[in-house]
Specification:
By secondary structure, the chain is α/β, with parallel strands linked by helices. The chain is built from 10 helices and 10 strands.
């Protein structure tokens, strides 16, 4: 009788230690920032301006602005891109160039702790970063806020939803969005009390009722990181006007979902339909 009790106590102790470790280091399991990106010219980018701006809590963030103007000099539509949980702005340059080839201006930003920026990422901090990026664009004479579009991928889709609930965009594009971080955590770690442990929630489904901007959701039906059912559920909960594009056979980090032709054409067509 005593040995089973000792074994059970040992198991409980190990589980408690595991939960404590997950609580302490969970953000290192959520955010995967890369280091300083190379200068734009080193990766073949032209007509790109490195830019900086301040956050409300005193950090200086870096980004790249891909600018363009119409023939009459009027500002074009501007796309503010919110990255997923890994990489930095250099990894989103092909998307920016593809959108730019259709006459769109693009701001690629890195969150705190990403791309050589100071600070450590958290939901509250990244939300402040998103607000500061929008404020920076508002300060530019070549940006028309009434034509500002938010484009968020994966984790960045949740960031875009959060900003859209506070500052409505002209349109909202969400690539591989999830309903909440707790839902994704529960999918990948069903044996852990994820909903009780999470500090950062990213509750997109709960914030969605406050958003009335035209919505485009893009997802891959072979996504092993964010199941397509999550993206569908978020889409179904959204108000009209909305559009859903599911790319067959596309996994989370496949080129088709990064800067693929069908994805880019869908974004351009959607924005043309909702000027």
């Amino acid at each position: 009788m005593r040995q089973p009790m000792i074994a059970a106590a040992a198991i409980v102790g190990v589980m408690a230690a595991l939960v404590a470790l997950l609580w302490a280091f969970q953000r290192s399991l959520i955010y995967f920032p890369f280091g300083v990106p190379p200068p734009p010219a080193d990766i073949g980018l032209t007509d790109v301006a490195p830019v900086t701006w301040d956050t409300e809590d005193g950090l200086v963030l870096r980004g790249w602005f891909f600018g363009t103007r119409s023939r009459d000099g009027a500002p074009r539509t501007t796309v503010l891109v919110f990255n997923g949980n890994a990489g930095n702005r250099a990894h989103r340059a092909p998307l920016a160039e593809a959108l730019g080839s259709h006459g769109l201006q693009v701001l690629l930003m890195d969150y705190r702790g990403y791309g050589g920026n100071p600070g450590s990422p958290s939901e509250r901090g990244i939300a402040a970063d998103a607000r500061s990026a929008r404020a920076y664009l508002a300060s530019r004479s070549d940006v028309d806020l009434s034509r500002l579009v938010y484009f968020g991928e994966s984790l960045g889709a949740a960031v875009a939803v959060g900003l859209a609930a506070e500052h409505p965009p002209a349109a909202l594009v969400l690539r591989s969005p999830f309903t909440s971080l707790a839902a994704i955590g529960g999918h990948h770690y069903p044996f852990l009390p994820v909903r009780l442990l999470l500090r950062d929630r990213y509750d997109s489904l709960g914030r969605l009722p406050r958003i009335r901007a035209p919505l485009l959701v893009i997802a891959g039906d072979a996504d092993r990181v964010v199941p397509v059912e999550q993206s569908r559920r978020l889409f179904e909960a959204a108000a009209e006007p909305k559009q859903l594009l599911v790319l067959p056979g596309a996994d989370h980090n496949d080129p088709a979902l990064l800067d693929g032709r069908e994805l880019v054409d869908a974004v351009i067509g959607f924005l043309d339909a909702h000027p």
